[in-house]
Write a structure and sequence with these properties.
This protein is mainly α and 175 residues long. The chain contains 9 helices and no strands.
Amino acid sequence: MNKRGLKVRDLNAHRIYKEVESEAMQSCNYGKLLGKVQEVTKADPMFDKAYVLQGEIFLSLNRFNDAMKVFDKAIAANPKCAKAYASKSLIYDIKNFNEKALEYCNKALECVSSSDLELLVSLFDQKLSILSRMNQEEEISSTLLNAEKLLSEEDFEYLNDFYAQETKLRLVAIS
């Protein structure tokens, strides 16, 4: 082990992961990428980011069941892996399982770092979208109040303008 506690094998897995992550941004050769990322998870079975990347590749291929299994592995490796919870929420959202989507979105929000602004904004947007479909106006208001505390003014205003307006339109349509 080196002084950071990582074994050489782990460092190699992290190096391969960085290469695959970079390649994933530029390539659509998913078969090759899957093979490489599977090397990483084999070398370091506790590397949650590698499982998340593998799951995202499966998502790109619309292989939702495979993606779910891999996101579960990411969560097993790191129970605070916000991205894995967020991705599971997305799959449930796509399949219109609103309750499950909301459950995993909330888990992701519990785990996400306030410094991961991109994921945080995405999670608030996803949660508000789910709540909107479920006609949960009070929960939308509560979520917007929470978002206001954590997001930049610009990000919050975007979400607030969209979802507050959508809620008002729905309330007018009901009355």
